[in-house]
Design goal:
Elements lengths: L13 H21 L4 H12 L5 H8 L3 H13 L3 E5 L7 E5 L1 H10 L2 H9 L3 H19 L1
Antiparallel strand pairs: 1-2
Helix pairs in contact: 1-6, 3-4
């Protein structure tokens, strides 16, 4: 006999993770609207604030995105004046991405977002760290 209980939505791990990701992205929206970027663009900017001058492929690897997804994001960020894309002299097939002065200055405003999100979620720092640790553990197992 089949176990129909295993197919109930309430018994799934994937569903609450999906909903949390969607809802947290939505909760970011008002804060990101203030600095004129989308959530996906915010992720790219965070990668560059951490290490400027990465290649398109390196950014894609960090964000688990392919170049077909990352390129339109970069084009929009470039059109807003936040980044510059430059071909490497040694290999013109490789495009490096650099923060513009505007992009560097945007970091100061963006620094407020994590604290605003924590306040909005009404979770302690310990709760957030525990949740992140658990999610990271799952992600590491998936990647092996």
């Amino acid at each position: 006999m089949e176990n129909h209980e295993s197919l109930k939505l309430g018994n799934q791990l994937c569903f609450p993770l999906y909903v949390i990701a969607k809802e947290i992205t939505g909760l970011h929206r008002p804060f990101l609207d203030e600095i004129d970027i989308t959530y996906s663009q915010y992720l790219v900017m965070m990668v560059l604030w951490e290490k400027d001058g990465l290649t398109v492929n390196q950014i894609g690897e960090k964000l688990y995105l392919d170049s077909g997804t990352i390129t339109p994001l970069l084009k929009r960020l470039e059109s807003k004046g936040f980044i510059l894309r430059k071909r490497k002299k040694e290999d013109e097939r490789v495009v490096q991405v650099f923060l513009s002065e505007i992009g560097k200055n945007l970091q100061q405003k963006a620094c407020e977002i994590p604290a605003k999100m924590q306040e909005k979620l009404n979770l302690s720092t310990e709760d957030l760290l525990e949740l992140k640790e658990t999610v990271d553990k799952i992600l590491n197992k998936i990647q092996k």
